[in-house]
Amino acid sequence: xxxxxxxxxxxxxxxxxxxxxxxxxxxxxxxxEPRPLGEQREYDRAWGLSLRPPQGTRVxxxxxxxxxxxxxxxxxxxxxxxxxxxxxxPLTITQVxxxxxxxxxxxxxxxxxxxxxxLKVADRPAGVVYADVPRTRGEGRMVLGHGYVQMAPDTFAxxxxxxxxxxxxxxxxxxxxxxxxxxxxxxxxxxADRTAAAQRALELHEKLTPKALHASLIEEQIFRIVxxxxxxxxxxxxxxxxxxxTVSERVEKRGVFVEVRARVFIEDQIYDSQAGYFVxxxxxxxxxxxxxxxxxxxRAPRPSATRPRDRTSRPALDDPTPTTTETGIRTxxxxxxxxxxxxxxxQTFSLTPPPTAYLSQxxxxxxxxxxxxxxxxxxxxxxxxxxxxKLVYRTDQVVPALDRFTLISRPAPNDPELRATYRGDRTxxxxxxxxxxxxxxxxxxxxxxxxxxx
Length: 454
What we know:
This protein is an alpha+beta fold. It folds into 2 domains: about 1-185, Mog1/PsbP, alpha/beta/alpha sandwich (Protein Transport Mog1p, Chain A, 3-Layer(aba) Sandwich); about 190-445. It is built from 7 helices and 23 strands. The protein has helices at about 1-20, 95-105, 170-180, 185-205, 210-215, 360-370, 445-450, and strands spanning about 40-45, 50, 55-60, 70-75, 80-85, 110-120, 125-135, 140-150, 155-165, 220-225, 235-250, 255-265, 270-280, 285-295, 325-330, 335-340, 345-350, 375-385, 390-400, 405-410, 420-425, 430, 435-440. It has a 14-stranded antiparallel β-sheet with strand order 17-16-15-14-13-12-11-10-23-22-21-20-19-18. It has a 7-stranded antiparallel β-sheet with strand order 3-4-5-9-8-7-6, sandwiched between helices. It starts with a helix and ends with a helix.
């Protein structure tokens, strides 16, 4: 939900920048010349694509839509979007360009077609097509451009551009310069690697019996949440997490239940999270619930290592303010998700589970306990990503060592890697939650000393 709001705010800011930029061209920039491209390539791991963005732009990867990456100009003169489109049937480049021109004319009745041409990119059939349409907000018009590169008979890489009409010559020249740098990187190899990793995940599930799964459960684990600056080994405690795993029963099905409770202190805010994940032994049913409440606390406690415990007072918590709840249920044929968040009400959507290599929410917490720790292997799963709010492909790589092993997880193809190291008995040594945040195991007694006020 935060991601969706952020996208809207960015779009509003960009529209404002377009209005400002319309009155002044960038100093020293020719109106017809493309923006110089950067030397460094940006890579997409989902499809093996790469390109060179223009100088003076920023690349956004984790967006709340289907784009693999967004490229935003700092001056607000253009935006680029990269995605992959899989069609219901094979089409030629000519047919794809025809279809887009027909569609844009239906969406915008005052569309002015802006030309098209077919070409080659990375030795593949490609084409570009343009249209002038009204701005989505405010007065004036903008140019839209689509560049298609055929990856397979029914699959196309798509690069899009949006720009105020005043900057059309520079923007379209930059767009085509970026498109010419697109490399496909061997989609066949990417899909072959993904298929092999998914097959290994399927075999892992087939070998895992309910008895073995139940035996792997850890009754309780307690962790410190520690944040440190990049490059520094020491950090400060900003919260805690408690995880419990039990054998349980839901809807007359026996299975595994994982309970997670956490509290994080960020500046004057406290974030309380309570989650529960269940999956049946036959893996035909799962459900989950995640509730996160944000509380204002002007006197947020600090670890006792930096501030002695004040026994005369306790933190004055305001009444709970924003609360977001996500619930999900999966049966054999569908995944139903409901998200309730402040200001937006309820959002519901349905997803179709993949036929194989599906990883439930509960199993994602149990992976370190069920993968063979002495076998160097990469597993590929399809799972529901709470961050992306859709089904995505993830990889989990096991790296064995003498008395321990590391699990390197990538929750989605373009997400950063998360590393967790475990002892031979599968107890955690350290787990990265982000580049600057990690989990460190502790005990209830130690946690009380660090957070005497909770």
